[in-house]
Amino acid sequence: MSNEKNIKTWVFIITLIGSSLLAWPVIQTYIPHIEDEKYTELFILGSTHEADNYPHKVLPGEIYGIYAAVVNHRDASSYYQLHVKIRSTNDPPSNPLQSESSNLKTITSYSIILSDEEQWEKAISFAFPEFNQTNESVHIQEIVIGDKAFNVDKTFPFDPETGSKLGLFFELWILDEATSSFQYDNRFVEIWLDISQTG
User: Fold this and answer.
1) Which fold would CATH assign to domain 39-194?
2) Which helix (H) or strand (E) holds 16?
3) pLDDT at position 100, please?
4) How far apart are CA 103 and CA 123, in angstroms?
5) Is the separation of the CB atoms in 139 and 132 below 8 Å?
6) Which residues fall within 8 angstroms of residue 94, CB to CB, at 6 or more apart?
7) Are 150 and 107 in contact (CB under 8 A)?
8) pLDDT, tens digit, 9 for 90 and up, residues 122-180
9) Which pLDDT score, from 0 to 100, does residue 24 have?
10) Is this model's pTM higher than 0.85 or not?
């Protein structure tokens, strides 16, 4: 009896294994394939090199600091450009869902080459030499990034209750080897600065 039970158990196990092997091609089509995602990290850190202490209220002539960082997780070396742009609350940002970059002009850019899993980080200081504020707007003629001045010549709406906001944002572009041209990488980060000369 015991021997017959062992034979039935072995027949069941062999049948189960054989059925599984035969059914595997069909089963495999219903199991989602998990691939390693290839992407790039882009982030900004505050003046203390952490995800806080970002500049908020900025004054003319004062120097402020942040850190910009890019990390390559694309399983290959990649060549990037990090574009620095400025926008007001009325300007649309980049649209990663549509793979559309911002149409605002690039103030300056950084060229970056990273091997896989390598990180680039840059301490960025910036200042606005002067603001020209009226009851309706704040005009900024230039921004100083590091030791270089860049023309902005942009007017930002001013509201007595909410002030005037300037978006300092960073847009990531990557070299497409097939076309030998840079393409928007669907990544941007931004900090909002209060440029009102009140309070």
Assistant:
1) Immunoglobulin-like (2.60.40)
2) helix 2-30
3) 85
4) 26
5) yes
6) 100, 101, 102, 169, 171, 184, 186, 188
7) yes
8) 999 999 999 898 889 999 999 999 999 999 999 999 888 888 899 999 999 999 999 99
9) 57
10) no
Is the distance from CB of 104 to CB of 95 less than 8 angstroms? no
DSSP-based three-state secondary structure for 5:
helix
Q: Which residues, in sequence order, are CB contacts of 191 under 8 Å at separation 6+?
A: 44, 54, 55, 66, 167, 168, 169
Question: In terms of C-beta distances under 8 Å and separation of at least 24 residues, what long-range contacts does 102-109 make, across chains too?
Answer: 102/169, 102/171, 102/188, 106/171, 107/143, 107/145, 107/150, 107/152, 108/84, 108/145, 108/148, 108/150, 109/81, 109/82, 109/83, 109/84
Question: What's the distance, CA 96 to chain centroid?
Answer: 10
Amino acid letter, 153: D
Confidence band of 29 (pLDDT split at 50, 70, 90): low
**Residue of 76 and 16 predicted with greater confidence:** 76
- Cα dihedral sign, 98-104-105-111: negative
159: which DSSP letter?
A: B
Residues 6+ apart with CB under 8 A from 103: 92
pLDDT tens for 109-121 read: 999 999 999 999 9
